[in-house]
Design a protein that fits this description.
Largest sheet: 5 strands, parallel
CATH architecture of the largest domain: 3-Layer(bba) Sandwich
CATH superfamily of the largest domain: FAD/NAD(P)-binding domain
Radius of gyration: 24 Å
Distance between the termini: 64 Å
Oligomer: single chain
Helix content: 25-40%
Strand content: 25-35%
Amino acid sequence: MHMVAVGGSDAGISAALRAREVDPGADVTVVAADAYPNFSICGIPYYVSGEVPRWQNLAHRTITDLEMAGMRLRLDTTARRIDVAARKLLVTGTAGDDGEEVISYDKLVIGTGAVPVRPRFAGLDTLGPAGGVHLLHSMGDTFALMRTLERAAPASAVIVGAGYIGLEMADALTTRGLRVTQMEQLPEVLPTVDPELGTLVHAELAGRGVEVLTGTTVHAIEKAAPGEPERLRVEAVTAAGEPVTRAADLVLVVTGVRPEVELAVSAGARVGARGAIAVDRQMRTGLPDIYAAGDCVITHHRLIGETYLPLGTTAHKQGRVAGENACGGTREFAGSLGTQVVKIFDEAAARTGLRDHEARAAGYDPVTVASGADDHKAYYPGSHRIAMRFTGDRATGRLLGVQLFGHKDAEIAKRIDIAATAIFHAMTIDALSDLDLSYTPPLGSPWDAIQAGAQAWTREVRAAARGTW
């Protein structure tokens, strides 16, 4: 059996590795459009900041590791077209000038991922990396950005976008010594959490010297006039219609991604949420012997069904399912909860499950309760307060979502994982208090912060039911 995986990132490599585990005799080929298979794109900000000293350290596995696992790597090779009936994949060199080649397959896994959203404002394409305007999604983008940082020695930067990557890059560039301005079109930074927590993230950025401009839409990037100290000018407008101009030596545009579906759609694959490739829980596309996984496909969410939620953790899981099923398995993707965490300087924000408006749109009757608790006993030095928002269903008490914000040493990631596990298994909020969690004063409390948040939710909902809320 010959399985071909298109894509050298999380989904494609996971599919290839799982296929070799399930069937050590399988012939597995990975077609990657660049020379950097199995690199951690999520780690790029930490290479830019200097915390990861060598770009090679971002490799989950080296090329030698992958080849020793039994896969054949076709690097700098672009998949151009699928002949579904003949089970053939047409490929060329990435530059398109190395001639065409046909690769036959028995099973095909499409893991083409996502590409950056390119906002429609002047200067993004005409100036480009040579002019100091960068996107950031691939290792190629990373090298281009590092060339600007090392050769032009910029003193200031404007970051367009304040989602996860935008915030991480504000941290990274500030750590490198740049003066950073962050522009976000929406009313608050980190719009994947409620504004009450986004405000706390905003304050952390401002406290570290980042100028944060929310409700601000960029419409042009221009070269600065001769004699001006900075290279670029960013023109924007506020929600009230007031013009905003900032000068900078470097502009980084990180405004989200969209699924890369051209290869699959041209072969006849259907699309679903946000134009991503439609797949079933076994990652089948509906085309004979063709699977798809990762940031190019729809996501099954355990609470709301079909959506689009590109995450590295999800891509790994989906790729593993696709690789196993390509070898004759019947495994199903268990579903996502959108569990995420991000570090912003010394703080961290995390979420899992649904926020209030998302739960209401999905047909629940949600109640969201804010509370706070210490990460460990306050009498032991170094305790940190955690801000929490719990969302549950009013009628059933089922836990639907949790959001956290606190110090990076307050185990924010592990605590959101407790909540994700509880939601995964459809627990009620009240049942969280029954969990047997660890305790010692330097690290926790007899009632963990997560349990304290759950108890606060239960108290408020019961008080409301008695008419005293």
